[in-house]
Amino acid sequence: MEKETARIEGFSDGVFAIAITLLVLDLRIPATENNEPQTLVHSLLTQWPSFLAFSLSFFSIFIMWVNHHKMFKQIYRRNTLLMFANGLILFLATCISYPTALLARYYGTPSATAAVAVYTGLFVLINLAFNLLWSTASRNRKLLRPAISDAAVRKIGRNYQYGLPVHLSAFLLSFCWAGGALILCVALWTYWAFTSGRLDLPDEKPVNVP
Amino acid sequence: MEKETARIEGFSDGVFAIAITLLVLDLRIPATENNEPQTLVHSLLTQWPSFLAFSLSFFSIFIMWVNHHKMFKQIYRRNTLLMFANGLILFLATCISYPTALLARYYGTPSATAAVAVYTGLFVLINLAFNLLWSTASRNRKLLRPAISDAAVRKIGRNYQYGLPVHLSAFLLSFCWAGGALILCVALWTYWAFTSGRLDLPDEKPVNVP
Amino acid sequence: MEKETARIEGFSDGVFAIAITLLVLDLRIPATENNEPQTLVHSLLTQWPSFLAFSLSFFSIFIMWVNHHKMFKQIYRRNTLLMFANGLILFLATCISYPTALLARYYGTPSATAAVAVYTGLFVLINLAFNLLWSTASRNRKLLRPAISDAAVRKIGRNYQYGLPVHLSAFLLSFCWAGGALILCVALWTYWAFTSGRLDLPDEKPVNVP
Amino acid sequence: MEKETARIEGFSDGVFAIAITLLVLDLRIPATENNEPQTLVHSLLTQWPSFLAFSLSFFSIFIMWVNHHKMFKQIYRRNTLLMFANGLILFLATCISYPTALLARYYGTPSATAAVAVYTGLFVLINLAFNLLWSTASRNRKLLRPAISDAAVRKIGRNYQYGLPVHLSAFLLSFCWAGGALILCVALWTYWAFTSGRLDLPDEKPVNVP
């Protein structure tokens, strides 16, 4: 059966690719008045929160794209709710550059808590949107790949079950230990990076040789 | 029959994806001098017109993309007029970030009327461009999907018939009640969101199983 | 025969789509201190050179994309020179936003001549790059669509033969009449818009019905 | 056998296309107060380091895309490591705009060494990432195109073997002769431009005529 979702995936890939690349616009070179090498090197080193925030957000959007890709490999048809759950994911992915800039500006200041709380809070919303997408798709089997097995559907759901509780914990932790909240997020994203290969279901491998 | 319009759709999807993602560049973090948490939280809260304008415009471009998608599922061939009607839609979609920034800056000030009038006025033009696209395609049946029925063509036309009068009303309303004009637009876009599923015509469903 | 150029076209479409959309970033809202409606409306009206420059450049990149599309419909294979002629076109298309910003800033000032000369000068370079692309492709028939006729190759070449002399004339004219140089460019682009349909060669129409 | 990597290539093309186009945002028009033509022409000429940095980086990303394209023509399957080697390439490609802006700002000042060292240092990292990608793919033959020969795999490896040593030399050279380091990079990229055609393997040519 032909996939109805090809143009949705293409549009989503476009939005993810742009959102991930626009992050670099917040890496601004130091605005030093003098041209001395020591000043430049020193200014570059004091920009570390910007590089950290850029790297974190790039990695998080890349993982979101991998997860999105894994889910849409199993989604073959769409309905209105699925279209808008996907639209919500794209909206929130586009937003990431805003708390990234907050993090770059305020990490290491007394306002770090507020910045990290906004940052991790956005990921709580992103997880809710991904859960809405996958529950919409998996509740209505007609939207999924025809030959998919129950075990495969459950396997995908299980892989993402830690998303919401971990991000929620990171959000709460941000109020007492900002750095710890970021470490928790990175730990989850790394887990997803390592387990993403396990989601390649054996029954989806194409068998026709050219 | 092969679709002649594949590269037009790909290019249009690219422009929509970029236009929708660039909106976030106008969400600038507060430029506060001090680093106190209260100052940051207060500055974030006073930015609400920016968040509102960003969300509205993101949603409106997403709906435009869905509508564009629905129309091009029925368009198989192109002529010069269709190419330029589509180019006009892309031009106006790209422009949306400008009145969005106006809205973010002036909503809640004595200039709200002017900002909302420019914003809703752009949507009047966008509707004229969409009407030009669909009337070009539906007047010349050779441009449409070969097996399409008259009922299907009329069904699509009917779904968008409210676009021009509602946006025109919002434009006129903006001069006496700026907030009401925005509510009117959101109501129309929500109607389109809910009815977009109805436009999946039964006779376009692929029947060949892999 | 399979097209070897699919990924080149995809990448080129991406660059054109981004270049055309980034133009809007130079449409900045007026930076007025007070919030009076009269001030806002007045500031908007004095921005007309920005709107003019944006519209001109959007239209010119759209026409470039249409022309690029027409040529690549006939190009099936690639060699190193063709790859880099295409790279040069993308480089120059990306550059357009720079003289567009110059035009927006200096049109209507004593520096209009310099701004329009840079603007039209860029289009002379773009034409040289397009000529390099098409002469590379048409000199080496193995790069073109297998069934293409000599008449079709000449027809495409003829359609673009005015490009270089007209843009060169516009560049020279810019030194004595800046506005006239822009009018000359728009006249050529409009000619291309109207004749682009004529380049759909009858022998490329697919004949297999689904 | 169907390629599993189509969506990865599409996403990568998107990121390359955006990263290459965003470079133009650092070409800012001169911020002169007066509107005299001589001032404008003089300001344009003093911006030459910006034009040089923009051209260099555009050319380098274009070559990276060509190389990426050549490698992925031979890669048919993916595993987790390959996904993340590719993610690392995209991350570093996105970063290029930052040292480009440094180069534009500090080339010709006493800080040129630091700017060129950061610039060439990034290309050392990019080469390590490309080596990781190709060694991951070529060590595990199941990831490659089924019919690929050992000679073809070695040929691709050989073409990129100069990448790491030349960029490392450029990085070291930057500390004593900043201009020389850039010339070394351009020489390598030009070599890759001229040899990229040689990587079209004879056994990958499609033979089925429509």
TrEMBL record, chains A, B, C, D:
Membrane topology qualifier = Multi-pass membrane protein
InterPro entries in the record = TMEM175-like
Any one GO MF term held by the record is: proton channel activity
> What superkingdom heads the lineage?
Bacteria
Q: Which reaction does it catalyse?
A: K(+)(in) = K(+)(out)
- Provide the transmembrane region boundaries: 12-31, 51-68, 80-100, 112-134, 164-192
Where this protein primarily resides, as one coarse class?
A: membrane
Q: Which UniProt keywords apply?
A: Ion channel, Ion transport, Membrane, Potassium, Potassium channel, Potassium transport, Transmembrane, Transmembrane helix, Transport
Q: Which GO terms describe its cellular component?
A: membrane
Family (UniProt): Belongs to the TMEM175 family.
Please give the name of this protein. Answer: DUF1211 domain-containing protein
Organism for this UniProt entry: Chitinophaga eiseniae
